[in-house]
## 1
Amino acid sequence: QGRMWAYTVGFTVLPHVGGFLGWFMNRKEIPVWYEKLKKPSWCPSRKIFPIAWTVLYTGMGYASYLIWNDLGGCSSKAVVPLGLYGAQLALNWAWPPFFFGAHNMKLALIDILCLDGLAIGTMCSWYRINKVAALLLVPYLGWLAMATCLTIRIWKDNPEQKPGKSE
């Protein structure tokens, strides 16, 4: 019983690790670079992002625990559902370094479009295993839809500067 508690916490905390590292590594770029970008009027306030990601990462982490538990741990049945989850989580963690770190909005856009597909695939694969786990991903998919639209708008409204060009 005590060991299952540790697994529950571990799976729930895991997504936060990459999210925190992404924020920590890129936090200085937000006031210096991101604030100067042209953004649409519907762009959420900077204060909303850490709250949203805390809720979303907690839900997706706990959902991944439910899937892992229902499939008997790291069994052969878990390879595809947890593999899709791991792949989408890796793309989720890669977005901040692409966008904030490298200022490469095109690569960030490609990343988030692939992330969208993998997140949808994850939810579909989870639905047959545990409907609650799949439904815990719905807010995440909603936020990803907004983040994808925001990435597209920022990419379109802020043409990338060519190296050597003066402003």
## 2
Amino acid sequence: TMKNPMVQAASLLEKFLFLVNVRPLLAGSREEPPPAPGYYDTSCFKRGDLLEVPRTLFVHFGIYLGENRVAHLMPDILPAITGDRQQIQQVVTNKRLILGVITKTASIRVDTVEDFAYGGSILVNHMDRLFEDQVLGSEEAARRAEKLVGATAYSLLWNNCEHFVTYCRYGAPVSFQTDKFCETVKMIIRDQRSVLASMLVGLASIVCLGLAPCTTLPTIFIPFFLWMAG
């Protein structure tokens, strides 16, 4: 039976997003220890605050719970294979994270601000301006986050760290960075010439630059399927 083109497109787009995000994650070297406690001034954070850590190609989000604790959603394979809380609570390595993305498993965990931000700069409640009167009370946001702590499903498109924090603080799971990326791709490929150009660039990358097909093939097929689905 033929699959729905939109479902195929979504699946391919999710794989492409994974390839886009995995490189900066590896560059962040989560195998190295995070900054020492006290690296961040937590006196400016309030319980229920939404924390953002901008990275090169994506943003990581969490909800501040007070006392140097942050609840955040992280892809992680361990909750699917063990119930050992002590082992799961250890800092998520690149291998655990990547396997979590591939198997679509994750956990909403509580870490220190240092473990959460990993040396990145932190923005506080930066998204409030986008939701105006939808901001829930700080205590309500924190309680929602605490209630969801534990294993959960993961999807780059439908259930990522941004969906988690927007549900907690604004009452509705939304991911602006995913939506923006999808809309940009759709806008580009509505023109058949752009589709053809994308495919040719992908093929040229394989032939001329020697790039791995697993990295460049999504640039060939994703535009085609999204164009067909649009």
## 3
Amino acid sequence: MITKALDLPDPDSLKVQEVTIGLPALRAGAFHCGKQCENQNNEFMLCRQEEKDPRKCIDEGKAVTSCALNFFRQIKKSCLEEFNQYANCLDKSSKDVHLKHACHRVEATCVIDLNTRSHPNKYDCKVKVFASLEPKPDVDAPLEFPDAPVSLPEVDRKEAKYGTRFHWMT
């Protein structure tokens, strides 16, 4: 329910440049973009889980979008031709742009080089614990409703005369 006391953010504060590329290119860069933007994404997801209010995580969401934009700008600057070839292979090899087809031979090596510079070898095999720089939010007291109606008393029911009361379980 929305009341007058609900404080909505200003619509101008919600405007952010979006990542406007197609599904094949997003799917082609998803793994590497996820690796490069891991800290921002973890910060955003932790904020969403702890705060339980998306209005408080707008800045973290903007950081994730900004990181993804910067990643695809790096791709455009350094290896657009190879990346487009890989995205085109994904697009043409299956109707649902799955990564399981033979396109792994075409994958842009320059994208892999971008990530290996920022992440050490065997990065995916190591256990990672995310340590947020943001302070942990205060835990709100559980909701209590003093004017809630009293629940109905328990009634001793007799066995059903013509079978089970739960007809869908037979």
